[in-house]
Amino acid sequence: MTEDLNPDAVEVERYELFEGPAYRFEVSRRDFFKFAGGGLVILCLLDEAEAQDPARRGRQGGVQPQDIGAWLHIDEKGAVTVYTGKAEVGQNIRTSLAQVVAEELRISVNSIQMVMADTALTPFDAGTFGSRTTPSMSPQLRRAGAAAREALVDLAAAEWKVDRGTLQVADGKVTHAPTSRALGFGELTKGQKLAKAVGADAPLTPPAQWKVAGTSVLKANGRDIVTGRHKYTSDIRRPGMLFGKVLRPASYGATLVSVDTKAAEAAGVTVVHDGDFIGVAAATELAAARGLDAIKAEWKGSPQISHKELFESFKKSAAAGSGNPQGSIDEGLKAAEVTLKGTYTAAYVAHAPLEPRAAVAEWTDGKLTVWTGTQRPFGVRSELAKAFNIPEDRVRVIVPDTGSGYGGKHSGEAAIEAARLAKAAGKPVKLVWTREEEFTWAYFRPAGLIEVRSGVKKDGTLTAWDFHNYNSGGAAIKPLYEIPHQRSEFHGAKSPLRQGSYRGLAATANHFARETHMDELARAIQMDPLQFRLKNLKDARLRAVFEAAAEKFGWGKAAKAEGHGFGIAGGFDKGGYVATCAEVSVAKPGGKLRVVRAVTAFECGAVINPEHLKNQIEGAVLMGLGGALFEAIEFEAGKILNPRFSQYRVPRLGDVPVLETVLVDRKDLPSAGAGECPIVAIAPAIGNALFDATGERRRSLPLA
Amino acid sequence: MPESIEFRVNGARRSVETDPGRTLLSVLRDDLDLSGAKYGCGEGQCGACTVLVDGRPTRACLMPSGAVAGKEITTIEGLEKDGKLHPVQQAFLDLGALQCGYCTCGMILSAVALLNASPQPTDAEITQSMNGNICRCCAYPRIAAAVRLAAASKGGK
Questions:
Q1: End-to-end distance of chain B based on CA atoms, in angstroms?
Q2: For residues A84 and A233, what is the distance between their CA atoms, to the nearest angstrom?
Q3: Does residue A527 sit in the same domain as residue A641?
């Protein structure tokens, strides 16, 4: 592992276990015209670094070339279609990616069709995670749009034998003003099959000159959603389609002792018992559910720990830490005038996407097509190919815009289950996980235990920082504060529950521990928590969001009502910088904690769509408020004790405080993703505000 | 045993032959191809399946289809008239009051029911009426703003 490896990619690797690419193929340009028809195709070539990005690993001999990130097609009628393997799960990349292409092609957003996340039509993509779409896919598509524009100008210049500098591109046409001639994009490409590959050097429109990008255009398919026309995976119907259900083990780690499927078979449902898999398919969901109920199975459980023993078990099973220490912790502690220790915990939380895992599977002539809501269409294609022992080119995975993911839909369980049932039934099968299944058999954000030792001088200078995260992960583990002697280590541990990616992943737990501990240090030396942070912070971008949030909030100026407290926290994750100030109220000592107000400042480079960005920030802050106040998975004896919305509380409208958002737009910096980072600061800001109100320090998530 | 159940959906008479124990949600989605109402929890906790039954917001995932015989049902598919969105739909679209959109149809129908009953709701009424609908993307500030905008543009009617 090299020094400069993207830390986010390391995090991805840890939980996704990608393998390296097996092959690299030559691009066959002819192939693109087979499905696209004539016109102009722009292929986005990845540079060597991008192609080697660990996030792109995991290909196992599919049909797409390895070194192409996306392609763009302008057909003979001038229609512009963009093909990308990224998936829309509510983060509004269908809109923001179209915006950057529209910007370069000088056309409206609505005249671009985005074909996304379809393994038969789009280039390979490792998946939609790690806030990578905006920093990696968006620049490729900008370059494709710019290259297409330049190619069209070349065609017009050749057609009219004029200098290309005299031509203008606007409204889907190239115009030569001196002779009042104009040709549409389609007319310029007519009768040709032009392919052009672009690398990293295509000329781009600088963000300061953006007219379409950088504006709040409406969600691309918003009208289909508000009218109910959009078909999510769970809405898809195929001719003759059956409904599937799967028999789940009685508890985690349970093994099947015996099973009797006779009653179900007698009821006329299709029953599949294949190894560990037992499932049914029937003409209606009710018939499938009844068929499943008729199966008698006996399970033998195995010992499983409960959430009460969790953090102790992490410590017991912990591996040695890894990280890059700096200086000597002992020396740093010796140099300190005040030293402090703290232990922090974060519970397992569930993604609970409102659309549970769902898939529709259909076999035709030995080929499998699966519609499913996943963030990794190509990964799920590999899973299917492996499960059914068929080559990847006989599997097509199509991802309709999906009912959210938050990192929770990287895997293809429902796809495999539906495909197995469809194979047995000889008909298409739809399988939609129940809420209880989604809460139990998906995976969770890793729980974590974090231990911190630190030292500080009375003037507020940090001297030592020793930070150990057990199990939850290494995302954003390293502080941006200037500390001469520091060590931040992640220790892998044995997780009793299946765990995986999540919005921000461990960045939330790491920021909670770090920013809570920073508040404790500030209190210990009686320094203002904001001043203490700024004193130890050189990073200009993080300073800027702290200052912006504090100013909007009125930090140090706003009057505090009886029983109210103020807290501040901030940090950096996946290319974004965030700071949140929170105001809480506690009715009486030991009374109910209420978040009254939260002000968040966020910076992710040049802003592509301000309203959609604000929507992401507000959503992340509120989702983070759930993890801060009440979300926690409870488990015992291999069972989830709260696998329902009536038992696992998520934020609702009534939980929403006054929310204010400050966008720090840096048109001089590359755009970074925004789906994850803004979740990390709200929990410590609330905890610190609670301390300010009551003098009580809480070091566990959830706080309440 | 299958029975014939008759009711009205979005103004049109519909008749289905089905087991009356099947939920209204399943009949709407699987028999009538009205897939705007979504499954989210199956216990009436999330509101993704909200439809109007005789004007009242109803969790279709808990409602047996046999129990809606003779009733008037409004689903999201019935709100747009002659290509014109209902003011609540328009407000959700204009304010971007959604992210993934899976909760949106249920949200909109809950809001329509609220505005029908109380055309100029207070913020407290909006919270009370919409608190049973989960938006896991947490687009709540915009959802509340969309309800207020629809009320201001004479929504609900």
A1: 40
A2: 19
A3: yes
Q: Which residues of A touch B24 (CB under 8 A)?
A: none
Q: What are the tokens at A58?
A: 């995991």
Q: Answer yes or no: are the C-beta atoms of A471 and A310 closer than 8 Å.
A: no
- Overall domain count for chain A: 3
Residue A174, beta-bridge partner list: A169, A183
ipTM: 0.98
Asked, as a colleague might, if the bond just before A702 is cis with ω within 30 of 0, I would say yes
Q: Do A457 and A588 share a domain, yes or no? A: yes
Partner residue opposite B134 with nearest CB, options A232, A354, A401 = A354
Instruction: Specify the CATH number for the domain of residue A592.
Output: 3.30.365.10
Range of the domain at A409: 233-301+374-432
**For the segment A330-380, what is each residue's pLDDT rounded down to a tens digit?**
999 999 999 999 999 999 999 999 999 999 999 999 999 999 999 999 999
How many domains does chain B fold into? 2
Residues of chain A with Cβ-Cβ distance to B61 below 8 Å are none
Give domain status of residue B10, yes or no. yes
Q: Which of B73, B74, B102 to mutate to test binding with chain A, by most A CBs within 10 Å of its CB?
A: B102
Count of beta carbons in the 10 Å neighbourhood of residue B112:
26
Residue B60 lies in a domain: yes
Which residues make beta-bridge pairs with A170? Answer: A173
Residue of chain B whose alpha carbon sits nearest to that of A90: B100
Question: Which residue of A228, A237, A402 is in closest CB contact with B100?
Answer: A402
Q: Contact, B124 vs B64, CB < 8 A?
A: no
Q: What is the pTM of this model?
A: 0.94
